[in-house]
Amino acid sequence: MTYADRLAALRDQLSRQRLDGFVVPLTDEHMSEYVGGYAQRLGWLTGFQGSAGSAAVLADRAAIFTDGRYTLQVREQVDGAHWAYEPVPQTSVAAWLGTHAPEGGRIGYDPWLHTAAWVAEASAALAERGATLVAVESNPVDAIWHDRPAPSDAMMAVQDDALAGASSSEKRARIADWLVEQRADAVVLSALDSIAWALNVRGGDVAHTPVALAYAIVDADGTTDLFVAPEKLDDAVRQHLGNAVRVQDRQAFAGALAGYAGKRIAADPERAVAAITQGLEAGGAKVLALRDPVVLAKAIKNPVEVAGHRAASVRDGAALARFLRWVETECTKGGQTELSAAAKLLEFREATGLLKDTSFDTISATGAHGASPHYHCTEESDAAIEVGQLFLIDSGGQYADGTTDVTRVMPIGDPTPEMRDRFTRVLKGHIAIATAVFPDGTMGGQIDAFARRPLWEAGLDFAHGTGHGVGAYLSVHEGPQRIAAPNYPGGAAMEPLRAGMMLSNEPGYYKAGEYGIRIENLVLIEPRDIAGADRAMLGFETLTFCPIERSLIEPTLLTAPELAWLNAYHAQVLDVLGPEMEGDDAAWLQAKCAPIG
Hints:
Domain Creatinase N-terminal: 6-137
CATH class of the largest domain: Alpha Beta
Protein name: Aminopeptidase P family protein
CATH superfamily of the largest domain: Creatinase/methionine aminopeptidase superfamily
Organism: Sphingomonas ginsenosidivorax
Number of domains: 3
Structural class: alpha+beta
CATH architecture of the largest domain: Alpha-Beta Complex
């Protein structure tokens, strides 16, 4: 079945369900960023392989909505003859429906795949045309997706307290204290990483993210109902959960929402789907629209989690350094492709003996593909790595003690002066973030411009955020903190930055049709002692160790402080990774980390 056939089949199914349109988001029942194969409805319908997007289908037209990270990718993967390309945040699904939905039409949506806020927005937009938003009982995409994968049956596993830094009972006690403060009887945890963190469990139900498909409801006394497929729990997990966690079948969750009549139940408006709030309200509960209490607690890493990440960064950085040497020595010979390079990097990480998974699909992009910030390499798009190109590798590992995410760029042969100029401007922005000092409570949106100024000065920019939060053996993209423009979709850029949060530092530059550049390290927010300061100040400690390619750096563009930072960073890379390297790898590292200027 071609993608055109799938679109036609969906329209036929909508007609059978008496619908004039339908919205297909890329998420699951937990509002996850990365989803299991069973929930990849957008990709199945359109061919789009990115990690964020939505589609809207009407009888006479269809549109796919993506942000600036996927401007090039969506055009390569989705047929413009059948789909209009709509940019986000310049427009939205709701706004598009408000313009294009038929008068008096019935537009379907799956209440398990949208938030209540989205439902209100779309309903208001449709009302302007006399159209209505209709919750479907069965998803019409599922009705025509005959070989749809089943949800994962991977087992749940215990995350040892020695790695978590706090027991599940301690974490649930903190949630209980929060519930008392909010005068709430219980809170629904629907985000998979929140459940994993609160219960000190992990899973294998979502590629690259060690979580299990489940829901949890935590009561004000700390006891918890965990809704999960019972066959996913072995005796070790049940013993770990203890009597205070009541295990119920995941299929019982929707019905359980009706059992809170007269109770005050907290549900996160950004993370709980509309079906949850609708189910609670239908059962007579008072829904409190409050942020999941795990979100901030999880974002502020405890000392054990920080120590674990440091250990993971060392082994991961050594694996990446060995790979970069391989790129330099082998890719100029010809015969290597984006997929073969990604496979080689995986070999180096697997050689650590501790890799659980990659933390996302490796972005292995050469030449023009590098200009798509979230390029996804497939067998169809796999390109040869050739002399004269820039090769961008954005990758990470999942280890029991930490989650990594790092991007480096290597020239295949000699880079052009323009490539060196652009790379150095990106590096200057990277250093500006790495060395930033700011008052406690500063928001990520307030420092995002630090990374962009060197590019702006040359009339350049990049169309993605500068930094995202990172989990502790959890989601590689973790909120609520972010470094991004204040109007960045989702509003996370206006979250106050706090000591203990981990973020990425990843400015970039992308020249359509030619190359892409991104330099990414992970950083930890820590207090800064400044003599004479009258406010509490914060700064960043760089956690990622791997050489930044010196042949791409134009030293004359760096200020003396910037050059000092670069040389100090490389000295630290050598100090940290040197003991991990041997033979030719050690000599290569020594040369790459030699002082510049």
